[in-house]
Structures are given as C-alpha cells and as structure tokens.
Amino acid sequence: MSVLAGRTALVTGAGRGIGAAIARALDAAGARVALVARTESELRAVAAGLAHDPLVVPADLGSADGPGAAAHAALEAFGGRLDVLVNNAATMLRKDSDTVTIEELDRLWVVNVRSALLLTAAVLPAMVDRKAGSIISISSISGLRGAPRRSIYAATKAALDGMTRALAMEYGPRGIRANCVAPGVVETAMWKENLAKPGVADAVLDLIPTRRLSTPEEVADVVVFLASDAARAITGEVISADGGIHGTVNLWPKV
C-alpha cells in the first residue's frame, strides 16, 4: 500500500531539480500534490507525469502575497486539508562576502526564508484543525557547516534550520512535525556549470565519503520518509542527505 495514500502535499520550487523529484516521489507514494513555482510551463511538464490529480499553482513566492495565495489555492482545491508542506523554493548566491549588495541579500532572504515562513503560517491553521501535519524544509549543508563565498546563502539555510526547531517545539503538542533535509552536492542544473570548471568535480568528489554526487531522487526519498507515519517520532531534526560530506574537515575549499 502506498505510504501516503489519500494525503495531500504542497511542494514549492516544484518545476525542476530537487523540487520536481520531490513532487514525483510524493505522487508515487500516493499523495495528491500541489506544485508551486513561477514558471507554469515547467510545472505542467512535471504534472503531466503524475498520477494523482496534481494541482498546478503558478506563484511568485518572492512577492508579499504570493505564498499566502499559493497556500489558499491548494487548501481550496484539497477541501481545506493539507497533510504535507515542502518548503523547497530557493535561490543561490556564490560571491565574496564583502561584495554582496543589499539587493542581493534581500532577494535571498525573501525567496529562501520569508516565503517559507509565510507559507508555513498560511497552512498551519488547517493542520492544527486536524491535529496532524508534516512540514519539511529543504536546507543545505551550507547551513550546517558553511562554505566559502556562500555566507548569505548559508545564513538563509541556517534560518530554515532554526525555524524548523522552533516549529517542532511550538506545534508538536498539536500533532504537527517539522524537519529539514540538508542536501549536499546534488546532480542538478544549479551545479552543472560549477562542476564543469577544471578540477572542481575531482575536488568535490574527494570530499564526499561515498565518492559520488547525490541525486534529486535520493533527497526526495528522505522527504517521503519524513512525510510518512514511519517518521512519526521524528521532529525538530536536520537530516543530511549528502553522502557524508557534512562530516569532512575542510568543506569545498576550491569550489
């Protein structure tokens, strides 16, 4: 039997990469999924491969009302029920810390953190009413360990980790769990350009105990587990899905 049969989920950044893999995995586990991102054509391409009547919700999560509108659309379509929220939408910045502009800082904060906070706030009442729910945020090993030229990105991911621990404490007594999944170097378009630089791929692989990159599907498998009843005793955790790279001493020195 599918472990999420009859349940509903909302996934942000679901048009490609890790978000698309998460949407597919939740659908394969039996959930009906609302796919949220800015580009409708990408969402529809993912939705075309799903089996459980997916919902396409184009939304600009960087706007003030985008997260709330996306949550409202999903809740309305799902009859007021949302079992799983996956905060995956994010943008990356790789830049010397003393050259970061206020505009860049604000952009990363709004997309990576504020959207997750607003979406979570918008769906919590429905979860509280049912005394059940799983909130899963996609963090990063950058938030756990830090990495050169990623101070702003690392700060936003560490913020998600802190948000998750606070939510677990606040809403645990009301039947709601909150956890983070922290990927490492994943085979996505975001990493392709950087890994193509001479010597970078070898330098990265040397730091990963498994000596290979993770796949979006492997990250998605952890999300499905956390969304399921098999993880009913797990909350407030940041679970690394990174091939062990977070345990290395000198993280990404040449990347």
Tell me about this structure.
The chain has 255 residues and is an alpha/beta fold. It has one domain: Rossmann fold. Helices cover 45% and strands 15% of the residues. It has helices spanning 17-28, 40-47, 66-77, 102-130, 141-145, 151-171, 189-195, 200-207, 216-227, and strands spanning 8-12, 32-37, 55-58, 84-87, 133-138, 176-183, 238-241. It has a seven-stranded parallel beta sheet with strand order 3-2-1-4-5-6-7, sandwiched between helices.
Can you tag this structure with a few keywords?
single chain; 255 residues; alpha/beta; Rossmann fold; seven-stranded parallel sheet; 9 helices; globular
Q: How helix-rich are the residues, as a percent range?
A: 40-55%
The helix/strand order is EHEHEHEHEHHEHHHE
Q: Indicate the low-confidence ranges by residue numbers.
A: none
CATH topology: Rossmann fold
Outline the biggest β-sheet. 7 strands, parallel
Strand content: 5-15%
Number of helices: 9
Principal-axis shape equals globular
| Order of strands in the sheet with most strands | 3-2-1-4-5-6-7
Tally of strands:
7
- The CA-CA distance between the termini, in Å, is 43 Å
Let me know the CATH homologous superfamily: NAD(P)-binding Rossmann-like Domain
